[in-house]
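PROTOCOL LOG
Step 1. Enter all chains and additional molecules of the complex.
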Amino acid sequence: MSPKRVPELKKRLPVNGRALVQMARPSVSAMLRRLPFPLRAPTVPQGVEPLPKESKIGADYDTEWARSYPARLARVLLVEGVVRPAMGALASPEVRGLDRLTGLEGPVVFAANHHSHVDTPLLLSVIPEPWRHHLFIGAAADYFFANRVTSTLSALVIGAIPIERQKVSRNSADQAAELIDDGWSMLIFPEGGRSPDGWGQPFRGGAAYLSLRCEVPVVPVFVEGTGRILRKGKNVPRPSPTMITFGTPLWPDDDEDSRKFGARLETAVAALGDETATDWWQARQRAHAGHTPSLQGPTNGAWRRTWALGDRKPGRRGPKRTWPDLG
Amino acid sequence: MPRPGFVLDVDRSTPPILFNHGETFRLEKLPPGRSRVIYPAEPLKPLEHPDAAIRHALLNPVGDSDPLPALLKPGMRLTIAFDDISLPLPPMKRPDIRQRVIEAVLDLAAAAGVDDVVLIAALALHRRMTEAELRHAVGDRVYEAFAPHGLLVNHDAEDPDNLLFIGTTDQGEEVEINKRAAESDLLVYVNINLVSMDGGWKSTATGLSSYRSLRHHHNVKTMQHSRSFMDRHASELHSSNWRMGKVLRDSGVKIFQIETTMNNNVFGTEGPMSVLQKREWDWTARDRVTFLGLQKGLDLMSSSARRSIFQAWRAPHAMTSVQAGEVEAVHEITTENTYRQHLVPVEGQTDILTMGLPYICPYNVNSIMNPILVMCLGLGYFFNLYRGRPPVREGGVLIMSHPTPWEFHPVHHPSYIDFFEQVLADTTDPLEIEARYEKQFAEDEWYRHLYRTSYAYHGVHPFYMWYWGSHAMQHLGQVIIVGGDAKAVRRLGFRPASTLQDALEIASDVVGRDATVTHLHNPPILMADVT
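Step 2. Run joint prediction.
Step 3. Record the structure below.
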């Protein structure tokens, strides 16, 4: 009999073949279902509304275990043994402005611009002590905590807590505030997601809100170059140098609400971006004149925005091998 | 609450005293019953918010001066001069005080729309600062914004095109300073006061001047009439600088002076070096183990390895005050704040003064402490750290402890080598040296070339080092160096001794057997207020 005729014969048989195959396969859940109650779960009577199933992932994922001592030790080993060398090789980070953190004590909120998935491990490897190993990260609940595996990895490796970005969530804010009050510092990307086109996005109010609520300073951070390594939409990283500039810590003024403070924070990060692209003096002159280029780039057509990106060449120091001027 | 400095009378229960000895240390027993030790005060509490204090000083100047923002106008020429590598000692941890102040000044300048800004390292006849040293002093941000455009420069005291003759004092002293600084609409001077000698008109009239100007106060006569040059009102060096300052002011050079003082926190309160800053009876078991380990470890190293370790040390100095405005009013407050940290009351003079010389002086940062600098540190700086009278009587003996190696940095100190080999082989008399040799070295084209284009101290600089010690040489009956290279010590005109006991024995020939001994426990720096 030719193989082509087998499906036809199956159709003509008086039994359900698929059911036969399923019955033949040993299934644990099916076996459990066949067990009598109370060995199996109760059935729900008709007309009764069952209680909603408690979610264990997304914004509801409990990350408390990630701040236990064994988990912290594991994270220190991972960050120092894997993340830092990997970032050194991939991103050759040049860190500037650490002197601005001299004398700063206690928990702080690091607020950085966001271009790439590389931003988080890169910042984890360059944020100085005493904050680096006492840090948690606000990560998108719908992305990093989408399932149990990514949730566990995010909590363990980068010390992430889930932050709702689709809606305002009291739970996320409470969790972050509680940790800051306990002495933990936070790394947050106020743009809420990676840049889609190389320019920044408007800052959301989370960092400013937490600073006001917990009375801690916000350290603006500008990350340059990670978009070249792994921009949004790419899956394979490409080594490229990066520059991370830490800014002067900001405290909210007495009469400042989170919106105003958030705007000031965005301006501060933009000024650091200007400082990276030009130099500190030019950046200060433009800042005082109110001409600091926005992180979000020009508001004209897409091609003009892409074109303008080329003008933002970083003022990175290369090895200078010029001969001295002997007059 | 930091403990003040005090004088300890040595008895049998006094532990051995720590003597610095270059890049090593010695523990010495001083003769009980006739010895005393002057201990410096502990580091003063630093300003809690240094950046806020700087801003406050700029906005609230002292003396006859407007706040800095009122002096800054669009289109003006602004020059910021700052102290060079010789301050502070040892170099401080980042951020350097100069960086904090300069950034604050530039921030106000940016707010006022000032475009034409030049920064000048006011190094007089010192060596030029390297890129790394400039970066450390002014910070990477300022360096990268100005240096690539040629707007952050080392002062060149031998560049005739960039010097401006301002005038002459009523005593005939010529005043010539950096042209850019003199012709600017505003000169902001950023100073660090490590000792009371620094600052005031000395900042501008010395730091930005030329040999033509400097020779009027950097000479033997001035030094021998400065009692001491750490006490401005008794210092001929300062009187000359103040006269020059008056010429500068009268000529219309507008100066906004910013002076800062720092505490004497040299080795910190934690870590292996902290033991070097503690009083001996405060040493814990851990301190003692650390010290022994440090001492043994250093003994096993080569001198260049030891030097590398110590020259890499960055002190946790912290700012104790900042004041800005008119030069003289600012300096009065600065001096008070410096004295607050340094002055230790001392009663009466002694027959023998002992001191352990450390690894660093103002002229060997990232370099070698050659024998001439050993002399300058001991007889020039430490001897002059007094107000009133020297702690040692006239005709007394000075015993210093230092290895005094016959070693020179060929790039930094080329003229020192010739000074040591030729001049000191002939005579050690400062007046004779000045008369016979100074002009030749000062005008030597090769030294001039190295000063301008390499990283060499000016040809005349070793002479100034020698003059610096001329008051002490005139005052003392004998100088003994313990543990030094005997040949180098003799070349300096001093007596070598292997141990402190030998040195005391040698000194007894001059001051008798029951001579009193006073030890200057240094560093950190102290200043004896001798009554």
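Step 4. Note key features.
DSSP finds 13 helices and seven strands in chain A.
Residues 47 and 302 of chain A are 55 Å apart (CA to CA).
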